[in-house]
Amino acid sequence: MTEEKTLLTEVLKNSFIFKGLSDELLREFSNLAVIKSFEKNQEIFGEGKPALGFFLILEGQVKIFKLSSKGKEQIIHILGPGEIFAEVVLAGVETYPAYAQAISPVKVAFFEKSGFLKLVQRKPELALNLIALFSIKLRSLVKTIENLTLRESGERLLHYLWELSEEGKKKDIELRVNKSHLALLLGITPETLSRLFQKYREEGLIELERNRIILLKPEKLHQIIRSF
Q1: Does 164 lie in the same domain as 93?
Q2: Phi, psi for residue 83 in degrees, rounded to 5
Q3: Could you tell me if 170 and 188 lie in one domain?
Q4: Of the candidates 2, 154, 16, the residue with the CA atom closest to the CA atom of residue 79
Q5: Of the residues 89, 123, 147, which one is the last residue of a structural domain?
Q6: What tens-digit pLDDT sequence spans the chain (228 residues)?
Q7: How far lies 101's CA from each of 63, 75, 79, 131, 171, in Å?
Q8: Domains contained in the chain, number
């Protein structure tokens, strides 16, 4: 077995959509996959392009985003190893509804939709996993819309940190993305993000250490979030 196939098998076993499947079925899905590599900042697909299949991330990070008519970028998701994107094609969508771009060197497994759906028809347990995945993605999208339309910039950042901390269970948080991408994800400018980080440091809520954030007062942070 090649190194890439070994990596694919391990990621498949731990990916939400493929959990609980037999080794035999995992091998069938592995045989369907085409491994593709993308350089940092390389486009994986564009909005409106024919939706030929979906992707499973093996290595690296991918951002899913939309562009306004004026070219303003709004990040919808930032995804990493084991996560799936463009699975909406399995619901009959003919074109990709957003852009996907590598934000680091990326390796993905591409699954052509017709071959994948044939296997799903034979294995109903996979269909249940798909339904659960669609539900999770829908809840995530609703949260993103709520964040961008109903909350001020400071609220967005605090809610984001609270979710990363698993609602206060983790006090030492590793940021998965750089600050410029985080600003785009939150729908604010990098300058505003820097001011907010400085504000919450001065208030004793957080401490910054490169790509890590330490929650100094998680209870107080929770109280602030609940007051919004």
Answers
A1: no
A2: -100, 150
A3: yes
A4: 16
A5: 147
A6: 577 878 888 888 888 777 777 788 788 888 889 999 999 999 999 999 999 999 999 999 999 999 988 888 889 889 999 999 998 888 888 999 999 999 999 999 999 998 888 877 777 767 666 766 666 676 766 677 666 666 788 888 988 888 888 877 888 988 888 888 888 888 889 899 999 999 999 999 999 888 889 998 888 888 887 776
A7: 5, 11, 11, 25, 31
A8: 2
> Do residues 106 and 48 touch, judged by C-beta distance below 8 A?
no
Residues 106 and 217 placed together within one structural domain of the fold: no
Closest C-alpha among 154, 157, 36, 152 to residue 105: 36
- What the block records as the tokens of 131 is 């339904």
Does 119 lie in the same domain as 11? yes
What's the domain range around 178?
A: 151-226
Claim to verify: residue 215 and residue 127 sit in the same structural domain? no
Listing from the earlier edge strand, what are the strands of the sheet with 43-45?
A: 43-45, 99-102, 62-67, 73-79
- Listed residue (152, 219, 148) closest to 184, CA to CA: 148
List residues bridging with 106 in a β-sheet: 38
Neighbouring CB atoms inside 10 A of 95's CB total 12
Q: What amino acid is encoded at 154 in this protein? A: G
pTM: 0.73
Indicate whether 53 and 129 sit together in one domain.
Answer: yes
Give the domain-ending residue among 126, 147, 168. Answer: 147
In this structure, the answer to whether residues 79 and 184 fall within a common structural domain is: no
* C-alpha closest to that of 71 among 99, 94, 32, 97: 99
